[in-house]
Amino acid sequence: MPLFFVLSGYLFRNGRTFPELLHNIARRYIFPYFVLCGINLLIETVIHWLKREYYDIPHFMLGILYSRGTVEYMPNCSPLWFLTALSSALVIYFWITRIPSRILSLSAVISCSLISLALDKYGCPKLFWNIDTALMGVLFLEVGRTIRESDLTGRFGRLNTTAKEWAILITLFLGASAIHLNYRDVSFDNNRYGSYILMVIGAVSVCSALFCLAHETSSLSLGFLQYLGRHTLFIMSFDYFSNRAANFFKPDLWIIILILKLAVILTGLSIWNFLISRIHNERVRTLLEF
What values do phi and psi take at 186, rounded to 5? Predict the structure, then answer.
């Protein structure tokens, strides 16, 4: 989960005005969030209607509005809680980047993460639009921005092959060790972080290694992975639905479940893209190309 915040921080630009930022957030995150949640709510409503089972639509509508990322509150699309968390984090981070002093802005970033940690330690209920998690996300937005401004991938690219291999191995080992020691206590969705130090070390180490690996493989032809990457939101939205559909056949092997999930996702994605291609209004078509 920190990787998504880091990527957003890497792509964050200071030149935009606040209205421009809000417009970008609304177009890229909030509009897709409500559309995709609405589709999942409709699917679940139809399924329960066909089964002649009661379905508490107002309950799930409130869950979507509040963005509480569990299946008890969001209809089979709880992974989309991240979009509201990222939106909240970007708004907070925007104002932090407007602080003229670098020391003060870094202090604000760290303070936000410590407030999030305190909300975890004192058992605070989840906040509206995951603002509690967003406060921790601000830290990883800063990590992404630092990776870009320090030219980490460029410096990595100038190393010799042996140095690159050792750098990636050591960084991955450090990150994997920290994650292994702490992963049972970490849940960004629930604003739980376990050991703050281990969480940060694990996240920053693995994210840095992945950035360097991406730099080294950027010339490879990875068409299928790039296709999936362009449609991350769609995959996030229907991951639970595809899992239910795959398990309907009760396969015994996990690899069969994975293949069936991919088949459901790719079929749905093909249908969605076909429907979008039939829309003549270019602006609407662009908005719906998740």
Answer: -110, 130
User: How many domains does the structure of the chain reveal?
Assistant: 2
* pLDDT tens string 99-146: 999 999 999 999 999 999 999 999 899 999 999 999 999 999 999 999
Measured distance between the N- and C-terminal CA atoms of the chain, rounded to whole angstroms: 19
With a cut of 70, say whether residue 91 has pLDDT above it. Answer: yes
DSSP 68: -
Alpha-carbon span 29 to 26, nearest angstrom: 6
Q: How far apart are CA 131 and CA 2, in angstroms?
A: 15
Same-domain pairing of 39 and 143: yes
- Rounded to the nearest 5°, which phi and psi values hold at 193? -130, -5
Residue type, 284: V
**Which residues have a Cβ under 8 Å from the Cβ of 222 and sit 6 or more positions away?**
none
Q: Read out DSSP for 182-216?
A: HGGGEETTTTEESSHHHHHHHHHHHHHHHHHHHHH
Residue range 177-209, pLDDT digits in tens: 999 999 889 999 999 999 999 999 999 999 999
Q: Which of 147, 136, 130 is nearest to 30 (CA)?
A: 130
Task: Identify the domain containing residue 250 by its residue range.
Answer: 225-287
| 192-193 and 186-187 strand pairing | antiparallel
Angstrom distance (rounded) from CA 267 to CA 246: 13
Which one-letter amino acid corresponds to residue 211?
Answer: F
Does one domain contain both 204 and 245?
Answer: no
Beta strand extents in the chain (DSSP E only): 186-187, 192-193
Indicate if the alpha-carbon torsion angle 166, 170, 175, 176 is positive or negative.
positive
